[in-house]
Amino acid sequence: MSWTRRKPMEAMTPRDAGHQLARTLSWPHLLALGVGAIVGTGILTLIGVGADRAGPAVLLSFAIAGAICACAALAYAELSTMMPAAGSAYSYSYVALGEGIAWVVGWSLILEYSLVVSTVAVGWSGYAAPLLTAIGFPQVLTQGPELGGLINLPAIFIIAVVAGLLMLGTRESARLNSVLVLIKIATLSLFVAVALPAFDAQNLHPFMPFGFAKHMGPDGVERGVMAAAAIIFFAFYGFDAISTAAEEAKNPDRDLAIGIVGSLVICTLIYVLVAAAAIGALPFTRFADSPEPLALILREMGQGGIARIVAIAAVIALPTVLLGFLYGQSRIFLVMARDGFLPQSLAKISKRGTPARITAVTAALVAVIAGLLPIDEIAALANAGTLIAFTAVGWCLLVLRRRSPDLRRPFRTPAAWFVGLGAIGGCAYLFVSLPMKTIVACLVWNAIGLGVYFLYGQRRAAVVR
Prior knowledge:
Layout: H1 27-38, H2 41-44, H3 46-54, H4 58-82, H5 89-96, H6 99-133, H7 153-168, H8 170-195, E1 215-216, E2 222-223, H9 225-232, H10 240-243, H11 252-281, H12 293-300, H13 304-317, H14 319-338, H15 356-372, H16 375-403, H17 416-433, H18 436-460
Helix pairs in contact: 1-8, 1-11, 1-14, 3-9, 4-9, 4-11, 4-16, 4-17, 5-6, 5-16, 6-7, 6-13, 6-14, 6-15, 6-16, 6-18, 7-14, 7-15, 8-11, 8-13, 12-13, 14-15, 16-17, 16-18
Transmembrane segments: 30-51, 57-77, 89-110, 147-168, 180-199, 225-246, 258-285, 305-328, 358-375, 381-400, 412-432, 438-456
Subcellular location: Membrane
InterPro entries: AA/rel_permease1
């Protein structure tokens, strides 16, 4: 049956020169791609959403989400070096679990990457909007309809800029990304240097005002440490975008593992410091659900000048997240097009060695979402797609360890069964901790995906039989 048909590992890399990507990225580029994709909206904007859900215990939410992501990252590191193809979790699932599961994972990745780009664009707009309205830009054009505006034009604009950059060339994009990542890290270091000395332990009491498990608050918002962790999980992923660069890595055996594991370690350290400084500097109720919580905290501390620097730096540096995820989404679409699940004409590589057609299509899709929807609902739904993909990666790790123990593994994750089960169990628990309407929306999305598979994709699959 086609549902269980597996793709041969040797068929993962295209033989047609017109569909091959150029190998132009070394490990510093991949490390910067990972850090740039991870550190962004999650810490710059969603820390406010997380504090609203968990109070000071949002620090625990960060720790839980980070531990689960660490398991997923180790699984990605092993699989990506075994199978250096651009399709990430979709490709691994096609080889290890079969065509049907691969389709579900690919469909979920479409949800993840498309909504992440949209979320980050809305987050970028949250920092850019005050600067724009100060010079006379209409406020109704900086917010979607649900927030009282007409359309979020700044979010659409930044997506168009990043897509254009990616279409120009991968190496050129990577160089600019590296510079912007350094600006981002310097900005967060500045925030910690200013806010941490103002740490007040009283701001941590009560530490867990909304409890640990997810529950519905009187205002209709689901709260608790796990409810916050399920949202904050968005702040950690991004390392998976590195696995989509496998076909463009100069030395995938070494560079992919360095990029995936290294970026998560660096970002976890940054998050711990920034979250502790934010929670300690100001009572969480004063910045919960703010679209620009770090800048708000600084203004409340009387550091208006530093707040402006953080806001401006966010406007400059947040596009690194857009670049990482729009890059990853276009590569996943590219591989699905090669496999026949999308029109194969979209897999055509431009003269500059980039998938320009699929990048343009992806940008148009996410621009519509970013222009019309609010950030918290987008982030929660993006997490649902990611959790499905991360669960599949943990599953693939265990299946291949059991079925093909002698396969070449340039990077072998330690304690593979603990890591695989940690990724599967942790992601499953975070999934059920998402808001119920998000879970329902995700299930509806995948039901639609299965309909598309049986009516369209199943007959068009171009896998080598």
